[in-house]
Amino acid sequence: MQLIDHQIRLQLPTYWPRALEPEALNRMDHPTPFLVCDLETVRERYAHLTAALPGVNCYYAVKCNPELELLAAFDQLGSSFEVASCAELQMLQKLGVDPERVLYSNTVKPAAHIAESFAAGLWRYAFDSEGELYKLAQHAPGAAVYVRLRVDDSTSLFPLSRKFGAEAQEARALLLLARSLGLRPYGVTFHVGSQCTTTTAWRQAIAAVGRLLSRLSGDGITLEMLNLGGGFPARYVEDVPSVDQIANTIESALHELLPYRPELLAVEPGRYLVAESAVLVGGVLGREVRAGENWAYLDVGAYNGLMETQQTVNQWRYPLWSSRPDHAAADQVPFTVTGPSCDSSDTTFFGVHLPATLDAGDRLYIGSAGAYTLSYASHFNGFPPPSPVFIGRS
Ligand SMILES: Cc1ncc(COP(=O)(O)O)c(C=O)c1O
């Protein structure tokens, strides 16, 4: 795959949306920081994913980017939704989305959120523990429940399995308990970790599902839903498997799935659908040299938009370039890029090559920034999150 080689010159990869090309962004006149999100790209990614996985229902993971305009676009495309809280459900309700079309995949939920979402008409809930089942039986009696399996997520950038998931043997016992509590044993789910970089993760997870289904068959339980979760990777700077490669692996693993394939197949992607659709535009507040090190101070840092740089202990690289025209290697020097707050831990990039002339008033462009940027952003120290700017409306 051709990548933006931000270390040398601006060379756009073939998939880069035209509307997000540097010249187009330079012409946009908005106060920084802002996040330009191209809805045309979102529609294209949705079409690609759903075509690659025919017969699989898509539930967009709201947490990834919960902007109402984006949710409306997914609704228009016919996507269903996955939520982690009642507040996320309420955003969907504002758009007229029927809670029946929504999955609640957070496995440990506030009791009040269970009761409120159930009263609103949501009926399917994830769980991975006994405690949650008792809560669900009390606040959503008779609800359909799906167990989250712990799977190997070691090839993802953002693993989730330490916090979530039950082992296969435990999952079986939990579904039996669910039945005895009057709940409906409905399905099984897993998450291979966000930004998963191998296809084998899905193959192994689906094989683990097969072992669970076999055990449950002996108990007279047939599951109706297999939810393959999220984790589909977006293109940043490193190469990742394509959605087509992942879909092929999933299809062949499902083909081998015994003793049966649940009637409803689901995915709940976030990052793949929205990351590449957006560029974050930050303004340079100041450029300083500290002990020989070049520092660029931006109006956007880890706390108001770039939290994922913290979660990956500075291993995370976005496509990056500036509004300066000097892209030649000879004109570039290494920079440490930091945020606007009074804290040093909002520093986002180390040793990135940017024009030596970079200075206050310039802009920095951070590509593939549509996922987990706005949704993590706070107003720490009074610095606002980037304002979303939508383009490419249909
Ligand atoms: C339960 C659940 N589903 C779906 C997602 C979306 O994952 P991704 O953005 O990696 O596709 C997440 C992300 O954390 C999640 O926790």
How is the topology of this model organized?
Elements: H1 22-26, E1 34-38, H2 39-52, E2 56-61, H3 68-77, E3 80-83, H4 86-94, E4 102-104, H5 111-120, E5 124-127, H6 130-139, E6 144-148, E7 156-158, H7 168-180, E8 184-189, E9 194-196, H8 200-217, E10 225-227, H9 243-255, E11 264-267, H10 271-274, E12 278-290, E13 293-298, H11 308-311, E14 320-322, E15 332-338, E16 349-355, E17 363-366, E18 387-391
Parallel strand pairs: 1-18, 2-3, 2-11, 3-4, 4-5, 5-6, 6-8, 8-10, 10-11, 13-15
Antiparallel strand pairs: 1-12, 7-9, 12-13, 12-17, 14-17, 15-16
Pyridoxal-5'-phosphate binds at residues 61, 64, 82, 105, 191, 194, 229-232, 268-272.
Please provide a written account of the structure.
With 394 residues, the chain is an alpha/beta fold. It folds into 2 domains: 18-36 and 275-391, Lyase, Ornithine Decarboxylase, Chain A, domain 1 (Beta Barrel), CATH 2.40.37; 66-269, Alanine racemase (TIM Barrel), CATH 3.20.20. It has helices at residues 22-26, 39-52, 68-77, 86-94, 111-120, 130-139, 168-180, 200-217, 243-255, 271-274, 308-311, and strands at residues 34-38, 56-61, 80-83, 102-104, 124-127, 144-148, 156-158, 184-189, 194-196, 225-227, 264-267, 278-290, 293-298, 320-322, 332-338, 349-355, 363-366, 387-391. Strands 1, 12, 13, 14, 15, 16, 17 and 18 form an 8-stranded mixed beta sheet that branches. Helix 2 packs across helix 3 and helix 8 packs parallel to helix 9 (243-255). The longest helix is centred in the middle third of the chain and has 18 residues, at 200-217. The two termini are 29 Å apart. The protein binds pyridoxal-5'-phosphate. Pyridoxal-5'-phosphate is lined by residues 61, 64, 82, 105, 191, 194, 229-232, 268-272.
